[in-house]
Design goal:
By secondary structure, this protein is an alpha/beta fold. The protein has 2 domains: 6-87, no CATH class; 93-348, TIM Barrel (Alpha-Beta Barrel). The chain contains 17 helices and 5 strands. It has helices spanning 6-23, 28-35, 39-43, 45-62, 69-72, 75-85, 104-115, 120-131, 141-148, 156-162, 164-167, 173-191, 221-238, 265-282, 305-309, 312-320, 336-348; strands at residues 91-97, 193-201, 243-251, 292-296, 324-327. The longest helix is centred in the middle third of the chain and has 19 residues, at 173-191. The protein is globular, with a radius of gyration of 23 Å.
Length: 349
């Protein structure tokens, strides 16, 4: 398949917009079938062949014969992107994570500042532990991009691992503020997103070695929440339509808690719940935005009641004051049986 060519995307976009407008949004294959009946498209042999080639590859993708990148590199994808970007109403991003949304350009200068300070050796040792010795040195934005980009054939568990570099810079209230503004402006300007439901970690202390962040002990739950709130409010002042929800996310894994200061995961989780409630009491302005939590983890694991038992008391406490609790399951399974089992486990909880 051809890569995206700007002139072809420009010719294709108005034709695609016309079909979508006339049909009020039917499925993609039917949309493209109708597009192929357009006389202007038929008269443009190059575009017509591109659309037909994409339709064949769409079927091949559904059969697991080709990766999604084969579709995303096409002119059809370029035209669809342009349609969505130019849509007159901004979109709601209902599930997005902080660490996975920070660009290499944002991460690099802040990472360099840490590597230039007293924590250099400690951080470099952790980077080697997570990424391997070949990860260093990190001298350019491209070096950061290489480390945080999922390679062909790598799976979701690897993606969770390579997000480590983004986590290393989130060690102050100010960086959280800058990160929130960066997210809001980037998502709006590039992707027409006007509302963000943000998943983020309230406390990064962990008993899992590859998750330990040098300097994370210096940032409090209040620093994280208020920093993100301030950054989003900074953007909202110049873009009044912008909305956001802050949704602290808690890892399901049994060892993901601060083992140095708490005797159990339940004790650490309950402390964080109390911190959230104290923040709402101290800063009532947070209430419209801090009103739910999420549970997260590698979805390749079968999470059962035992993984939630230590969070049960804290979850009920939050629900008692109106918080919603979300949990995501079955997203990365390749077989239907295992995916359904994962979802069923969640429903049983």
């Amino acid at each position: 398949m051809q890569n995206q060519q700007p002139d072809m995307v420009e010719r294709l976009t108005p034709l695609l917009v016309q079909v979508i407008s006339e049909t009020n949004g039917i499925n993609l294959d039917d949309t493209l079938e109708l597009l192929c009946l357009n006389q202007s498209l038929k008269a443009d042999t190059e575009l017509y062949d591109e659309v037909q080639f994409f339709r064949r590859n769409l079927w091949r993708f559904h059969q697991d014969e080709i990766p999604v990148s084969e579709l995303l590199n096409s002119c059809i994808a370029g035209a669809l992107f342009q349609f969505l970007k130019d849509f007159p109403l901004p979109y709601h991003e209902e599930h997005i994570h902080l660490t996975g949304s920070l660009t290499p350009e944002f991460i690099f200068p802040r990472l360099q500042a840490i590597l230039a300070g007293p924590a250099r050796q400690q951080l470099e040792d952790k980077i080697i532990e997570v990424y391997g010795a070949q990860a260093l040195p990190i001298n350019t934005v491209a070096d950061v991009e290489r480390l945080i980009t999922l390679k062909d054939g790598e799976q979701f568990s690897t993606y969770l691992q390579i997000l480590y570099l983004a986590k290393t810079i989130l060690i102050s209230r100010e960086v959280h503020r800058e990160a929130a503004y960066h997210m809001a402006s980037t998502l709006y300007e590039k992707y027409n997103v006007g509302k963000i439901r943000l998943k983020f970690t309230l406390a990064r202390s962990s008993g899992i070695s590859s998750e330990q962040i040098p300097g994370a002990e210096n940032v409090t739950e209040a620093d994280v929440v208020l920093g993100l709130y301030d950054g989003f409010m900074d953007f909202q002042r110049s873009h009044p339509f912008f909305e956001f929800i802050l949704s602290p996310s808690f890892r399901k894994e049994a060892l993901f808690y601060d083992q140095e200061h708490y005797a159990s995961k339940a004790e650490h989780f309950n402390h964080q719940v109390d911190s959230i409630l104290a923040l709402l009491d101290t800063h009532p302005k947070l209430k419209p935005h801090l009103c739910e939590i999420d549970t997260v983890g590698d979805e390749k694991d079968f999470y059962r009641k035992v993984h939630f038992q230590e969070m049960k008391r804290g979850l009920r406490k939050l629900q008692g004051v109106g918080f919603r609790v979300r949990s995501h399951h079955g997203e990365t399974w390749k077989t239907l049986r295992k995916g359904v089992q994962s979802v069923d486990n969640a429903m049983n909880m």
